[in-house]
Amino acid sequence: MESNMHRDEREAPTFIASQKKIFLEENVAVGDEVGRVYAIDEDSGDNGIIRYSLNGSLDFSIDPESGIIRTTTSLDRERTAQYVLQVTAADQGNPPLSSSTEIMVVVKDVNDNAPEFPKEEYNLTLSEETPRGSQIIVLKAEDK
């Protein structure tokens, strides 16, 4: 009795060990590695070769072979506090099979703005009789 088993069914890549949430300080350097995704595919040949792609932000890129995610621009929490990145892993079969995962990037604030006063100049007139130690003005500054 002879038995030939052929695997005609193809499998889409499956994400494993992927971060679902990444926390970054807004002063992270451009080009720094900030995360990584990893997928496996049980198929052989081109059907088992995985390439990664990223959608959702031009502020990040992904290495198509390693799955390493990097910043491509300076991040500013005051401009964008969080990103949702859609990462796709696709095999090289014909047609390609793929799967996707979402990664949330949360940008943490860094004290990178000096306090600002509403006016650049304040003029006061004091009487000579003003007692020493008197409160003569209250100023408020804003810090973003």
UniProtKB/TrEMBL annotation:
Its main location: membrane. CDD domains: Cadherin_repeat. One of its GO terms (cellular component) is plasma membrane. It comes from the Eukaryota. InterPro entries: Cadherin-like_dom, Cadherin-like_sf, Cadherin_CS. It is found in: Membrane. The keyword Cell membrane does not apply. It comes from Teladorsagia circumcincta. GO terms for biological process: homophilic cell adhesion via plasma membrane adhesion molecules. One of its GO terms (molecular function) is calcium ion binding. Keywords: Calcium, Glycoprotein, Membrane, Repeat, Signal, Transmembrane, Transmembrane helix. This is Cadherin domain protein. Residues 16-117 form the Cadherin domain.
